[in-house]
Amino acid sequence: MVDIPKSSAKNDKGRSWFDHLRSKLRILYHGQSAGAVRFQATILIVDLAIIAFFVASPLLRNTDSFLWLDYSIAGVLTLDLVARGLATSHPMRWLRQMPVLIDIVILATLLFPTWLLNFGFLRILRLWTLTRTSLVWRPLEKRGLGGYRDTIQAVINLLVFIFVVTGFVYTSFAQQQSGIDGYVDALYFTVTTMTTTGFGDIVLPGTFGKLVSIVIMIIGISLFVRLAQLIFRPNKVSFPCPQCGLSRHEPDAVHCKACGHLLNIPDEGQG
């Protein structure tokens, strides 16, 4: 019998505890058991509440409880990021993903609200990073709404763009003889510019203001057109053809319209 040093035994015990923790988190974040579903639903509700706070932040910034809420949310997001990192099989690869990098930037604006105040408008990007996970889409797919994923994503992209631009305009041009005296004015300017209505009652000053307006119009129109295409085009499902790879088909398609290969598209309700 070979004696195992005590230090080595402790290390093995520590590794097994750590592996157990990662396995537990992986089940909670990615599993489909009743407990995992309840956990994911709780995380989703907390995320939506945090996003609501981000939207209302410009209006709450001068209240006494703002910093307390700010740091509390920073703690919640820190725990969520660490837990999601432990739950993944390849933490370093996960850390390089764009949604994760954006979440880290958002966390930095929460941890240092005084230094990074001008970047607070980036927090609404949390709504976009949330849609990069299965927390939002898995419940919809179980209820047979998976076919509307592209449309819902387009609506979310539009909302995120509106609030990011509104925050940027409010931070950069408020009180600069632009007619923007508050957050609602910045939101009003963003929407009128995106829709190319252009009433002219609020105009961003200088060359930089004109360039910002041009960018808002170009991207805004593109997002509106994308949303309109998804709303009015025939509803399709995502199912790659094994023969040619065409990924979108009518829900009742029997053969691929590109190559004629026989398809076996599952019903939305099948799990």
TrEMBL record:
Pfam families in alphabetical order: Ion_trans_2
Compartments where found: Membrane
InterPro entries: K_chnl_dom, K_chnl_volt-dep_EAG/ELK/ERG, VG_K_chnl
Predominant subcellular localization, coarse grouping: membrane
Domain Potassium channel: 159-231
Keywords: Ion channel, Ion transport, Membrane, Transmembrane, Transmembrane helix, Transport
Gene3D superfamilies per record: 1.10.287.70
Sequence intervals crossing the membrane: 41-60, 99-125, 152-174, 211-232
Coiled-coil regions listed: none
Keyword check for Membrane: yes
Membrane topology term: Multi-pass membrane protein
PANTHER family: POTASSIUM VOLTAGE-GATED CHANNEL PROTEIN SHAB (PTHR11537:SF254), VOLTAGE-GATED POTASSIUM CHANNEL (PTHR11537)
Protein name, UniProt field: Ion transporter
